[in-house]
Amino acid sequence: MSDLAEPLTSTSESGLNPAPNPSTLIHPRREPFEHGLLPISKLIFTDPAQALAPLKQKFSSAGLRVDSSALADALQISVEHARLVLDTLASVLHSDFDPLTKARPDEIDSVGADWRDIILFLYIQSYKKLLPKTHKDSAAVADVWPSTSAFDGYLSALSLPQLARSNSRRFMPSQADEEAHQLSYLQKHMANILSLLADHVEGESEESMVLTVEGFEHLGFLMHFGDKGSERVPLSQATSFFADSDRDMPAVPVPAAQVHDWISQNIAAALEHLTEKASAKDNGSASASDHDIPMADVCTSSIKASTSARGPCFIEGISKSSYVKQASDIKGSSLKVLNCHESVIYILAPLRYATIYGCSDATIVLGAVGKAVKVEHCERVHVITAAKRVCIANCRECMFFLGVNQRPLILGDNHKLQVAPFNTFYSELEEHMAEVGIEATTINRWDEPLALGVVDPHDSLSHPAGVSDVQAESATRLDPDQFTNFLIPNWFGGESHGSTRENPFQLPDAYMASQQKNVGA
Is the dihedral of CA 381, 508, 489, 428 positive or negative? Predict the structure, then answer.
């Protein structure tokens, strides 16, 4: 095999691989797997390669970009669901320079998506999430997770599969476990994925398939190089496949089999590194600077917060307290709030992605989130956020005060959800919104929730055999008479540096009247 197919990890003279340099390890892009899966049955194929091959031919022959009408026709889905696919794809694309990423919400359909990104997005709809862990210290969890709810009387009417889901206290797997699961998925399916991006030269054998530089770069939707503390390195910069091409001439395509060998070797090296890292942790030799905190570890007596340039910032295990993070406190562009209870949490920063998981009896303010917010398995939580899009799954008795440019997406087994217009501000809010691309003057779709199915086909735990799906319970609008502003304290005193002096989202008349009545009371 030529040097082009060698993994980035070096090999010693003895033929044994030394400990790999973390900055040269391949990683899955978490965003498509965490924010890009949709529970729409017609998007999920038993054999994705076979099902998507005709779509590849149809889309590639028709042109580079696909709009919602063409997508709806090809997949036999509604235009509404096709638009949802484009909206979701736009929120998880790897390139900030793609026209779909840069499009305003009302331009997404006219801009359309590159057919190769559509194919990759549809392929990973076959992904099955790693099962959540039960907590190792059930007594500690019981201390912070309420054991009863006003809604618990409903449980007697549930079917056995629903009852099992409702009673399970679910805790996210560790970042390392999720990464290994995603890498294993890519390893298993990479040959098929490459066949959908590759072009035939002559004949129909695998050896006749080649990958152009454009097709290769689209693999960046699924993976990248780089590690904590370093910038992500695109695949095209991590290999010399196309390095010798003349800038004035099209790059020479590379055999798909050679690309497959190179990716497979790098995935194998990354999985080996993760295994060795887990073994070292089990033996008690984890580095103090290692921020890969197991997300199943709830701490009731102290706050766990960690950041890294590559991975998300974690806020975990806060109980019965207030907690604030500003832009200067967050190094990365994504954040996860996990297993927090009876607390008020302020995240006053611009972000790309945010996840709220397993929280109860809390108020959580997310300043400005430019790509996507996901709220899962929460009870009696108030979420206040300005965001491009919001996804709500498996929540009870929660209230969402939203400034959103896309329809709130509601999935799974939800009960007694309410939505209301955005109701707060802080001095830097408008600057943060502008930084991440959220519009306030013309678009707030807080009151247009889109409910999909109760059953999550990407989750084997919540998708038992023989259980038919029904539409998820949607959210109701908060009564305007119950609407109030939420005041964010001036935590650090002194002169504020931002220009925001009021809620940047215009309130509907009924809510404005209620606000004015409350102020005058």
Answer: positive
CA atoms of 449 and 477, how far apart (whole Å)? 10
CA atoms within 13 A on the CB side of 469: 16
The whole-model pTM stands at: 0.83
The angle formed by the CA atoms of residues 378, 354 and 45, to the nearest 5 degrees, is 80
User: Cβ distance 337 to 358 under 8 Å?
Assistant: no
Element housing 187 (H / E): helix 175-197
SS3 414: coil
- Say how far apart CA 33 and CA 10 lie, in whole Å: 30
Whole-angstrom distance, CA of residue 127 vs CA of residue 138: 30
- Among residues 287, 259, 257, the alpha carbon closest in space to that of 22 is found at 287
H or E element at residue 411: strand 409-411
Q: Where are the domains of the chain?
A: 26-129+175-227+252-269, 313-510
CA distances in angstroms from 233 to 28, 36, 51, 228, 321, listed in the order given: 12, 21, 31, 12, 39
Cα 14 to chain centroid distance, Å, stands at: 42
Question: pLDDT per residue over 108-159, tens digit each?
Answer: 989 999 999 999 999 999 999 887 665 444 444 444 444 344 334 433 344 4
Give Cα 267 distance to the centre of its chain: 21
Which residues, in sequence order, are bridge partners of residue 411? 393
Distances (CA, A) of 116 to 56, 196, 217, 236, 264: 8, 8, 10, 16, 21
Give CA–CA dist 519/292, Å, rounded. 46
* Beta strand ranges found along 437-516 (DSSP E): 450-451, 476-477
Q: Which helix (H) or strand (E) holds 167?
A: helix 160-167
Angle at 43 between CA 42 and CA 47, to 5 degrees: 95
Cβ contact 6:241 at 8 Å: no
Number of residues that this document lists for the chain: 521
- Whole-number Å distance between alpha carbons of 331 and 90: 23
pLDDT digits (tens, 9 = 90+) for 13-30: 333 333 345 568 899 999
| Half-sphere exposure of residue 349: CA atoms within 13 angstroms, side-chain side | 20
313-510 folds as: Pectate Lyase C-like (2.160.20)
Spatial contact of 402 and 446, defined as CB atoms under 8 Å apart: yes
Structure tokens at 430: 């408008």
| Residues 370 and 350: beta-carbon distance below 8 Å | yes
Query: In the block, which residue shows the tokens 């529970």?
Result: 39
CA–CA gap between residue 42 and residue 519 (Å, rounded): 50
